[in-house]
Amino acid sequence: MATKHTYKFCFGPWNISEGGDPYGPPTRPPQTFDWKLAKLKRLGFDAMMFHDDDAVPDIDNKSGQQIRKEAKELKKRLDDLGVAAEMVAPRLWFSPMTIDGAYTSNDPKCRKYAIDRSLRCIDIANCLDTDLIVLWLAREGSYLRESKNGRRSVELLVAAIDKMLGHDKKVRISIEPKPNEPMDIAYIPTIGHALAVAQLTGDPKRVGCLIESAHALLAGLDPADEIDFACAFGKLWSLHLNDQNGLKFDQDKPFGSNNLRVAFNQVRALERNGYGKRGEYVCFDVHPFRTTKKEHWLDHLVNSRRTFLQLVRKARTFNEKQAQQLISDRNYQALDQMVLEHLMRG
Length: 346
Ligand code: GLO
Ligand code: MG
Prior knowledge:
Elements: E1 9-11, H1 33-42, E2 47-51, H2 52-55, H3 64-81, E3 84-89, H4 108-127, E4 132-136, E5 141-142, H5 150-167, E6 172-176, E7 185-186, H6 191-200, E8 207-212, H7 213-218, H8 223-232, E9 236-241, H9 260-273, E10 282-284, H10 299-317, H11 320-328, H12 332-344
Parallel strand pairs: 1-2, 1-10, 2-3, 4-6, 6-8, 8-9, 9-10
Antiparallel strand pairs: 5-7
Helix pairs in contact: 3-4, 4-5, 8-9, 9-10
The protein binds D-glucose (GLO) and magnesium ion.
Residues 89, 134, 136, 176, 178, 212, 240, 250, 285 line the site of D-glucose.
């Protein structure tokens, strides 16, 4: 029987995007960070996730002292609004220093930049009172395999993570795998890869993972299986729910938008593993469609949360006893129909 607990929700400032894509300019005017923050609580969310430069803009041109000062000012604003900081992620894919990768760049100066910036990111997390750092390894891969050495890249990743673990004895690192985009092929495409890398670090207990539904789908995997796999290791520390229509660009559609059954199975996996009971958040890494009008700007977030909660209800009212009988009888045809009818019932 599913255990009952309430979930806490989160999104990041980049989830209120302006509609630009590689083929055309923004379709909505920019909104300020303050506007986004003010909306968060009102929409039923509890926390915000941050890139280091969402928290401290223009971070590369500021001293360590200035960065900590601005992060503390942000913390005060978050406290006043009753909003927590879920995690901080070093945005290692914008700078000219990370054109050829960050931790796995072929240029030692660029690798040093990436590590130094990650340590500043940990300082920001400290000021925001979160011990969670997320590493989406955006440019750790290659456009052509001959340009890098895969074995060395694993060693460089481990060395970079070890530097972070050494910088702060309490920090936890969550690796967010993705198989491609922006790279042709990435080095850490799945949760299995992320957790295997964790084992090579100096303190594997403090290295876990973050699952994004769309990234699992892009790797040809079922996100629910990725959730169960990570939870079997006690390593699912954050979650980016969204949806994806097959092997296309990373679409970041609203949760459940493309495949309700796959979404239902993710929620069932979260329920059976007690995700959220140790303070983990359900984050939606979703984007509004490019066509979205200004007045409907936040609907993808509201809808994702609403779908999630309805699927929690569906997971909790799923007739497990009947399902077990069908499983014992090996009547998977009836089980299939039972799931469909359960999802179609109002
Ligand atoms: C892109 C990623 C991205 C990360 C975010 C946090 O595909 O999902 O949105 O989650 O930058 O590091
Ligand atoms: Mg993500």
